[in-house]
Amino acid sequence: DAGVTQSPTHLIKTRGQQVTLRCSPKSGHDTVSWYQQALGQGPQFIFQYYEEEERQRGNFPDRFSGHQFPNYSSELNVNALLLGDSALYLCASSFGRMNTEAFFGQGTRLTVV
Amino acid sequence: GENVEQHPSTLSVQEGDSAVIKCTYSDSASNYFPWYKQELGKGPQLIIDIRSNVGEKKDQRIAVTLNKTAKHFSLHITETQPEDSAVYFCAASRAGGGADGLTFGKGTHLIIQP
């Protein structure tokens, strides 16, 4: 049973560019949440997608947007990249909009130069 | 919103000894408290969780306790082994739909000395 998979694993972008990160949830899960983890910090909630809609959003600007597809996979888009967007981006999947038993992928390491 | 404080930031113990990591939370509506283990270069791995209607939960060498009144919860690892070395995160949330995701502590770097 494949767990949560994310792509790519590493990415280097220039300030001002746009980036798209991808996530496939664990089999049987229908809810995808995205988190940003700065170096030496705990993950911070960006937003959650369920039934192809953004359901909840953390304290992140509109430059961060997302999408969920009918097969429950999800994308995270970040526009107008800033140096401070450099971080590990984590995708977590769960069932039924619940925060319980959320399983994380290995993350995408984004470096903005 | 929810705020989670975690202590200590670094914990070094001898192999075979016990390790305890403590967290406090601020939102009395939080009712789900997971613990994650993160190894270098990997995503967080769920190791144990507890809900607010339970005071203690055990899984082999790992246990979690919750004090709702004081708003704190702790992770206990007994008979520590080298493979327990990692960063551990506590988190708190409202379990049900509509919750604002998981709020994490800043992590504890657990070092198991041989």
How would you describe this protein?
- The complex is a heterodimer of chains A (113) and B (114).
- Chain A has 113 residues and is mainly β.
- Chain A has no helices and eleven strands.
- In chain A, strands 2, 4, 5, 6, 9, 10 and 11 form a seven-stranded mixed beta sheet that branches. A four-stranded antiparallel beta sheet of chain A has the order 1-3-8-7, with no helix packed on it.
- In chain A, a hairpin with an 8-residue loop joins strand 9 (87-94) and strand 10 (103-104).
- Chain A starts with a strand and ends with a strand.
- Chain B is mainly beta and 114 residues long.
- Helices cover 0% and strands 54% of the residues of chain B.
- Chain B has strands spanning 4-7, 10-14, 19-25, 32-38, 45-51, 56-59, 62-67, 72-77, 86-92, 103-104, 108-113.
- In chain B, the strands form two sheets. In chain B, strands 2, 4, 5, 9, 10 and 11 form a six-stranded mixed beta sheet that branches.
- The radius of gyration of chain B is 14 Å and the shape is globular.
Distance between the termini of chain B: 41 Å
* Helix share bin of chain A: under 10%
How much is the average pLDDT of chain A? 95
Distance between the termini of chain A: 37 Å
Number of strands of chain B: 11
Tell me about the biggest sheet of chain B? 6 strands, mixed
| Helix-strand string of chain B | EEEEEEEEEEE
Mean pLDDT of chain B: 94
H and E order of chain A: EEEEEEEEEEE
Rg over C-alpha atoms of chain B, rounded to the nearest angstrom: 14 Å
Question: Which quaternary structure do these chains form?
Answer: heterodimer
Low-confidence stretches of chain A: none
Query: Strand fraction band of chain B?
Result: over 45%
* Coarse morphology of chain B: globular
**Rg result of chain A:** 13 Å
Q: Pairing-aware structural class of the strands and helices of chain A? A: mainly beta
